[in-house]
Amino acid sequence: MRTFRRFACFDWSGQAVARPAGIQLAMTRAGADAPALVASGHGSGRWSRAEALGWLHERAAEKADMLIGFDFSTALPFADAGAYFPGRKDNPGDAKALWAMVDRHCLDEPQLAANAIPAHPELSAHFRQREAGATLTGDRFEGGLGRLRITERACREQGKGNAASCFNLIGASQVGKASLTGMRVLHRLAGAIPVWPFDPVPERGPMLVEIYTGIAARAAGLTGPTKVRNGQALDRALSSLGSAPHTPLPRYDDHATDAMLGAAWLRQAADEAALWSPVGMTAELRRTEGWTFGVA
């Protein structure tokens, strides 16, 4: 099994602004050092999606020995209906074709935003979203939770978190907007860094995995609310993940602490062989839906 010397986690955001407050990056290395936040090159310290993409290309160029987690879904549900968008003629056949489709439809949007997908005349039927203060539920949005990937169902069944449907774009727990923008980033990364499980784990260099920071929080012993908003609580959670105390932050918010816990958890989880070969992950899912690292 491949081992890594460094670990990084991006907390992500689908907010259609230049520098979303929700994008935070934390890094750590093998051992017990506490993770630390990484500021962008911009004066505000906030990351843009384009800067995150540039950072990834830099890690690829230097062949960094690094496992990098992204807190967004790398694909849409496919297995339940044999298509990402049932009823549409030109459905992408796999996740990488889906990334290309999302990017193609959103080419005119700045900041690597992806609002054009749920606004599309045909694709909008698959989403539940809010427009002008009203909730709009498309004809093809399935009731209740909405369509889920196999890994999201497994996550819920294993009690590792309330994984949500990417077709739901309403509420604090929605992940659809972030995931669609993330797919644009993955497409533009153009294979410079392999993405698990769509690509095999390389013998050297960086690797990308989809994570769910709720899994990291639960692994750190948090129950009920899984958000950490002060230094003492963060150190308790980090200690549960085998990490030394962190250097105090100027301010604490969910995005910063999620990124830090994600990096510390990824360092620990990367050594669990079972997580690299989940029981429910088939060859077809490797190609179409992907998997959340940390779901067994």
Question: What does it look like?
Answer:
It is a single chain. The chain has 296 residues and is of the alpha/beta class. It has a domain at 6-74 and 187-276. It has ten helices and seven strands. It has a five-stranded mixed β-sheet with strand order 3-2-1-4-7. Strands 5-6 form a two-stranded antiparallel ribbon. Helix 1 (49-61) packs parallel to helix 5 and helix 2 (95-105) packs across helix 5. The protein is globular.
Number of strands: 7
Unreliable residue stretches: none
- Indicate the mean pLDDT: 95
What's the Cα radius of gyration?
Answer: 18 Å
Order of helices and strands: EEEHEHHEEHHEHHHHH
Q: How many strands, what sense, and barrel or not for the largest sheet?
A: 5 strands, mixed
Report helical residue fraction: 25-40%
- What general outline do the C-alpha atoms trace? globular
Q: What amount of the residues lies in strands? A: 5-15%
Distance between the termini: 16 Å
Strand order of the largest sheet: 3-2-1-4-7
Q: Note the total helix count.
A: 10
SS-based structural class?
alpha/beta
What's the quick description here?
The chain has 296 residues and is an alpha/beta fold. The protein is built from ten helices and seven strands.
